[in-house]
């Protein structure tokens, strides 16, 4: 089905419509050979709390953004190359059900579908697209991914020292290596971790592990608490309440009954 949509008029119209919905805040999405496979709303675990985000699955990239007006207007566009993506299952926990992790080199996060059926549909289509693009390019799946950040609300005190209580003055910081929420004192170093091109904030525990593996310490630099730049992985945190349709639409269906039953290829449940 994807092959039939490549460079077709209906596919081009769909992609142009996505571009129009993002307006000048988004990048050009029309590209030779690119197909819009599906779209829909998933609840993304942001730094502060879960929030709905509009997702667009293409055969080579995954795009998502904030919903301003459902099906009409989005902003804060994020574009993820599918060749970097790895999925990991999440077990249902309380109200947070039908979720999985989307792990990439620069950013990893949890998303949740409305139903188990929709979760399976998303997983099958994403995994199929990842498999196809890696196969075409003769590439192997990515092995290094950014840590998933622990949401602010799940940590009232530093996860490293277990003493510092977070307040307006005592700010939360995230270790870029493990994703834990820590205080400034327990994250006074930066280090160029494998998934980053520059030194980033890491907790003291992770820093010690990195240094022990790097006798020359060529990647390590120290910094006093509070002077490291804190760049949030959730610049899309603040938005207004909107109404939206959760049910996804897929323009390219997974082909065989066996694929629908078992998935293609099998996805990572525990890594």
Automatic annotation (TrEMBL):
Q: What SUPFAM superfamilies does the annotation carry? A: FYVE/PHD zinc finger, PH domain-like
Write out the ranges of the annotated region (Disordered): 219-242
List residues of the FYVE-type domain.
Answer: 152-211
Keyword Plastid tagged: no
Q: Name one GO cellular component term.
A: early endosome
Q: Which keywords does the record carry?
A: Metal-binding, Zinc, Zinc-finger
List, alphabetically, the Pfam families matched: FYVE (PF01363), SOS1_NGEF_PH (PF22697)
Mind listing the GO biological process terms from this record? Answer: endosome organization; endosome to lysosome transport
Query: Where's the PH domain?
Result: 35-131
Task: Report the superkingdom from the record.
Answer: Eukaryota
Instruction: Kindly give the InterPro entries that the UniProt entry links to this protein.
Output: PH-like_dom_sf, PH_domain, PH_domain-containing_F, PH_Phafin, SOS1_NGEF_PH, Znf_FYVE, Znf_FYVE-rel, Znf_FYVE_PHD
The yes or no answer to whether the keyword Glycosyltransferase is present is no
- GO molecular function ontology, one term from the record: phosphatidylinositol binding
Q: What is this protein called?
A: FYVE-type domain-containing protein
Q: Which organism is it from?
A: Litomosoides sigmodontis
């Amino acid at each position: 089905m994807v092959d039939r949509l490549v460079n077709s008029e209906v596919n081009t119209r769909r992609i142009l419509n996505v571009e129009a919905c993002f307006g000048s805040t988004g990048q050009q999405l029309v590209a030779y050979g690119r197909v819009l496979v599906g779209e829909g709303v998933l609840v993304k675990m942001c730094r502060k709390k879960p929030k709905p985000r509009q997702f667009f699955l293409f055969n080579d990239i995954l795009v998502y953004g904030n919903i301003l007006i459902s099906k009409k207007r989005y902003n804060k566009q994020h574009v993820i190359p599918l060749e970097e993506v790895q999925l990991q299952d999440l077990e249902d926990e309380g109200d947070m059900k039908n979720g999985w992790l989307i792990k990439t080199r620069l950013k990893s996060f949890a998303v949740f579908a409305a139903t188990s059926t929709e979760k399976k549909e998303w997983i099958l289509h994403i995994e199929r697209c990842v498999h196809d693009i890696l196969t075409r390019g003769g590439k192997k799946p990515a092995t290094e991914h950014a840590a998933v950040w622990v949401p602010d609300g799940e940590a009232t005190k530093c996860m490293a020292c277990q003493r510092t209580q977070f307040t307006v003055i005592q700010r939360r910081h995230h270790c870029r290596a493990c994703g834990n929420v820590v205080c400034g004192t327990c994250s006074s170093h930066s280090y160029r971790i494998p998934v980053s091109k520059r030194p980033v904030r890491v907790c003291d525990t992770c820093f010690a592990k990195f240094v022990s593996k790097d006798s020359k310490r060529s990647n390590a630099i120290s910094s006093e608490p509070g002077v490291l730049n804190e760049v949030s992985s959730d610049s899309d945190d603040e938005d207004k309440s909107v109404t939206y349709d959760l049910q996804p639409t897929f323009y390219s269906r997974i082909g065989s009954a066996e694929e629908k039953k078992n998935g293609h290829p099998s996805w990572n449940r525990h890594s």
